[in-house]
Structure formats: C-alpha cells, structure tokens
Task: structure prediction
Amino acid sequence: MNYYYPMPPMMQYGGYNPYQMQTDTDESSYIENILRLNLGKVISVYMNFENSQWGSKIFKGKLEAAGKDHIILSDPSTNMRYLLLTIYLSYITFEEEINYYYPYQTQK
Result:
C-alpha cells in the first residue's frame, strides 16, 4: 500500500528544509548533523527518563537516521528498531572514530 505524504508548504516554496543537512554557510553544529555524518555506525545512546518507571536506559545499535528531535537505531541481534526522542538524550558513544565537520573547518 502506498501512502502519499504532501510536502510541507515551507518546503514547496523554497523555504527551510528540516531534512537537509546544514551546509558550511551555516554557523552551527547541531547534533543531528554530526549523527548524519556517522550513519551506519554502531553507537550506544544513553537516555534518562526522569520520574518514570524506566529511569536510565542504554540503547545500542546501528545508526539509521537522525533528526532535530529523534534518533533511529536498529539492533541487528534482535531485529528491533528504536525511535528515540532526543529530549531524553544524555550522551552518545561510538565504537569507532567519529566523522565530524565543523562549519568553520575546511574539509580534507
């Protein structure tokens, strides 16, 4: 079954596209941009669900996608997918070198 999702009006008329990675003309380095540079890597996401039954929790898996308010992980051992809200994010660890580009840094 195919679903059609209309493009938000701001994107139809050349406005800001929240799904597009920031370019070097932007003066900010957002966490979702750093994560997008590292798609496919295995990461551990440490989250704190304050005042809830879960408390603190660690999610480990392959980084599939990242947005302004969410991170999507897949766990190949359980075939489970996680949509994690960054409002609960404490920090992230990587098992390998992090790809990182700061807006004022020249690319190598």
In short: The chain has two helices and five strands. Confidence is low (pLDDT under 50) at residues 9-13. Strands lie at 42-49, 55-66, 70-75, 80-85, 89-94. Helices lie at 9-12, 31-36.
